[in-house]
Amino acid sequence: MTSMTGLEAVEPPLSARVEHVVLAADDSFGAIAAAEWLAERARHRRMAVEIVVIEGHVRTGPHTGSAHQEGEGVAWGMRESLGARLPAAPTTVRVLAGEPVEALRGAAEDGDLFVIGCNREGYWHRLPIATRSTRVAEVAVRPTAVVPSTWAPASGVVLAAVSGSAPEVVDWAAAEAATTGRVLELVHVDLLAIRSSPARRPDTGILAEAERHTIGAHVTRVRAAHPGLQVRTVLEHEGVADALVARGGDTATIVVGTRMRGAGSVLRAVLEHARCPVVVVPVTGDADEATR
Question: CATH number of the domain at 157-291, please?
């Protein structure tokens, strides 16, 4: 909501806006970690939370009632737990039916941010099979946070993977960094992809020029929008996914787009192997550089 001073519209600060968050819940450790991450994030902003559960996909043990009743039980249990951490946040619950990925994708459309836990660890961490959270994030219609079950609060940077000139990823990451008081770090993944391709080896001058124009435009824009935000830029020399995952150990949040150079394999690798939460931001405009 905006306030009016004469004819001028004044946007409230980010921390004053109410963010509508949709939290996917079940009875897994990943869902618990997602709720804890959300509670930590709520220290810096106001939010309203809707907890959604897929009926028939909440238990690994014996069933004790109908799928809908079990779903309601998990949803209300999460509501009680979250309410203890977020007493000021309005919280509602909803039990969904249908194919999980499609149902969760539909629920995400109602929020500003969709949050889901990821349970891949141990033996399952090595299998080339996408988890449900990854499949939901790959088709994100709203910014989607995937939180690993091993998540713990960290003091690192907000890292944005820059691909082309589309602003969505950098703008979301900049707002997150500004609200939480963190450093924003920009990594140019297009240049990483070019370096990693044996068929394309442009000289360092071309790479430097591309980085200066693309990264520079993003830096100028976010500094104008968030005065005082500390921004730094990085160009790694390894593969895209390896570079992003490696940096995840010292990072609070990795922010990537749904469209980037080598998007399918890179996005999945980051989602499945990053040790910190990964936020996938839908990119709808100027994605030609990301898919060329």
Answer: 3.40.50.620
